[in-house]
Structure formats: C-alpha cells, structure tokens
Amino acid sequence: MYREIFNEREVKGKGVIANAYTFNILMVAFLREGVIEKVEEVWKEMMERNCAPNAYSYSVLMATYCEDGRMENAMKVWEEMGGEGVKHDIVAYNTIIEGFCKVGEVERAEEVFREMVFDGVECTCVTLEHLINGHCMSGNVDSALVLYKDMCRKGFKPESSTIDVVVEVLCDKSGVFEALEFVGAVIKKHDIVPRKTTYELLIRSLCKGGWMEEALKLQVEMVGKGYAPNLEIYSAFIDGYIKQGDDKKAETLRDEMLRNKIPSLPNCLRSSLYSCFLKLYCGNSRKLPAA
Fold first, then answer.
1. Where are the PPR repeats (predicted)?
2. How far apart are CA 143 and CA 149, in angstroms?
C-alpha cells in the first residue's frame, strides 16, 4: 500500500518524495504493531531508494530487533550506524541498553552504559530505569538500589513501574520491611502516591509472612488513597488468616468478598483463591460453596 502511494505521487509529479522521516514514520508504525518483517521491508526499500537513514532510523531498526530478542542483529545495526558516521545518540544508547537488559545480559548493558559515559553522552532517567529493571530481573537488588540512588542524585523521578519492580525483588530477596522502607523513602523524596499495584505487592508479602496487623494498616492506607481491594487482596488476607489458624476472620472476609461482588480474576489468581477456600473449608470439615 505505502509503495503504491509513494510511486503514484512521485510519478504524477506531486512533489512528494519519500525521505528518512517518511520511512521512520512507517517503521515506527509497523514496530508498534509488532510486524517485524514489515519494518525490515521498509528499511530495505529505504536503502534501495538511496535514502540516507538518520540516527532515529537506526534506533527504530535496533529497537525492532531488541523487541524480538535478536541482539546480534541489533548490534550489527549499531556497528553499521557508527561505520556510516552517524553518531550514537541517547536514543540509540537507551535502545541497546534496554535490549540487553530484557534478554538478561545486564553486564553487556553496563558495558554500553560505560561506553556512553566515555563518549560524553548524558544519561537520562530512562537509561537508569532500564538498568534498574535489568538488575532486578537478574535478582541483583543491591545494584538496582545503587542505580536508584544515582537517579536521585541526578534529580530524576522514577516511574511507578520501576518502583514496583524494585519492591517485588526486595520482597523476594531482602524482606517486605526493607521494601516498605524503600517505598517510604521514595514517597518522601519524590512526593508521589504509590499506585495500587505497589500496595498489592506489599500487602501480599506481609500476609505471606504472617504480619496481618501491618497488612491491615497498609490496606486501610490503600483504601484511603481511593484504591478498592480486589480479589487478589482478599485472597492474600484469607490465606494469611488461615495460616494463623484464624478461620473465623478468613470466613468473614470470604463472605464480605462475595457480598461485595468483587470483579473476577484471571484463571491463575482464581485458582489461588479457590485453594484458600479449600484450606478453609477442609480445615473446618464444611461443605464447599457451589461454584
């Protein structure tokens, strides 16, 4: 379709000649749709028309390969970019750093980051967030926290998704109370309101560890921020009370949940909740409610 449009306008002398910006728009559109072969097709036509790609053109093609986990292809484009005398800008660096982090090659990402600093390219908040996410994926929470502190020194404000990633790893590796301390420091430093998923991560971890009073306090705070508890929160509390042998509170929550008609969950979480009901009713030798 796009070829026909270009050819028709050029042949009829409409004065519309496809340039790098035109091809960039097409590649971005196909990348967003996840049609990788079309991005490559547009790039190939760009070369056939002797249209010189700019820095953003190279970054889009690299992002396409990074999204598909094909870092070898992405690095070939990176090298070609430098070979053609096109300077690696912050967009290019961030693209490659994110790509390596996504495939678990955080050390390679750190190497590219050091190269970026050596080349005098200033990092952005996005750069550090990619590295934080990468270290969290590999379970290296200490390195992630060092990068977070570096982010604060530079005056950057982390995205909520990055906060959640750090919180989840802290809960798994260091304990929920260190995660709570981290969230408290983030709120104080950046004057932000944690999103619902942050509260859910913390409440789940508190309930799992048997700290039900602390979980209740956090749930009250969550509701005060306008976040209604969902089935995942109910499931965490019910399971926590069952583990403590407090079947009365567990059943009260179960009745409250059914009465309030909490929206349904994905199958994986619904199975977890039903497992809680099994523990509750089997422990009390009661008949399970009808589905």
1. 19-53, 54-88, 89-123, 124-158, 195-229, 230-264
2. 10
C-alpha–C-alpha distance, residues 255 and 263, integer Å:
14
CB 259 within 8 A of CB 289: no
Q: Which SS3 state, helix, strand or coil, does residue 72 take? A: helix
Other C-beta atoms closer than 10 Å to the C-beta of 131 total 27
Surface-to-core class of residue 87, CB atoms within 10 Å of its CB (0-12 exposed, 13-18 middle, 19+ buried): exposed
Looking at residue 199, its pLDDT comes to 96
- Which residues of the chain, if any, have pLDDT below 70? 1-16, 261-291
Identify the sign of the CA torsion 212, 224, 255, 232.
negative
The answer to whether residues 194 and 218 touch, using CB atoms and an 8 Å cutoff, is no
> Is the distance from CB of 160 to CB of 198 less than 8 angstroms?
yes
Q: Work out the mean pLDDT of the chain and round it to a whole number.
A: 87
Structure tokens at 74: 């992405």
201-257 pLDDT tens trace: 999 999 999 999 999 999 999 999 999 888 889 999 999 999 888 888 888 888 888
Cα 193 to its chain centre, rounded Å, is 18
pLDDT of 116 reads 97
pTM of the model: 0.83
Per-residue tokens: 78: 């990176």
User: 């409409």: which residue's tokens?
Assistant: 14
Q: What is the pLDDT of residues 82-111, one digit of tens each?
A: 999 999 999 999 999 999 999 999 999 999
Token pair of 32 as six digits: 């967003």
Spatial distance between the Cα atoms of 72 and 58, rounded to a whole number of angstroms: 15
Cβ atoms of residues 211 and 234 within 8 Å: no
